[in-house]
Amino acid sequence: FFAVASTGCNKITPEKLLSDATKNQQKVNSVAADISLDMTMGISQNDLDMSLDVAMDMGLEAIKNPQAYHMKAEVDLGSLGGKNTLELFAKENKSGTKITTYTSANGEWTKSEEKAEDEPADEITDLEHFHSDDLVLEKETKKIDGKEAFAIKSTVSGKDLEESGLLDFVGGEDLGIDLSEADADVTLMIYKEEKLPAYVSIELKNNAEDSTKSDDEAQAFLSSMKCEITYKDYNQVKKITVPNEALHARNDISENSTDD
Hints:
Layout: E1 5-7, E2 11-13, H1 14-27, E3 30-45, E4 48-63, E5 68-76, E6 83-92, E7 98-105, E8 108-115, H2 120-124, E9 136-137, E10 142-144, E11 147-157, H3 158-163, H4 166-170, E12 183-191, E13 197-204, E14 208-209, E15 219-234, H5 244-247
Antiparallel strand pairs: 1-2, 3-4, 3-15, 4-5, 5-6, 6-7, 7-8, 9-11, 10-11, 11-12, 12-13, 13-15, 14-15
């Protein structure tokens, strides 16, 4: 849902900006970003609702080839869980067929292995999923990290949100939450000089729930959500090193796993 460039007499359009930013982003091999998430989700059955407010602040470093990333998050589950620290490393094996993920929850490491494919952390930072027919370019540029950036606003469908990996990223897919009837307001900022993403804000406009359940069954819902991504450094992350305590964590992955 974001693009900009010039057409004719140096006219900047949101469509061309988004197109340029998407193409330039695909050429980047690494990125560092800050991600914040605030949402309210829960379970409803008949006339009873139980909701949970979740707040998360995360730092992300990701490398495209070979695939690797590092995330460290502070998660606040409010009265039901308090504050927790989550850290995660993921690295592709030498053949590029599998990803080993190392996860630390409050200091205790575990690891798992799965087929190499697009990870939620990669998907959510990919502009490909956020195209729209109602892009609006704001008249004034904004400042991000002291640099000028174009600001584009739009509304994105629930289908596009699902394809973006956002639901999987926040854990909603495991709960069966369906975003197909939901919409979100989106703000995208693109650096004026580099034509690369500077900032993305995604805010849910209406409720999303599990459409497969009847009224008498427990139904998961997502009543509010706002996710913000601030892109800090491109092509500056050269290597991601998994700590020794994570490498030696107990697990049930196959013996064929190879750590890079």
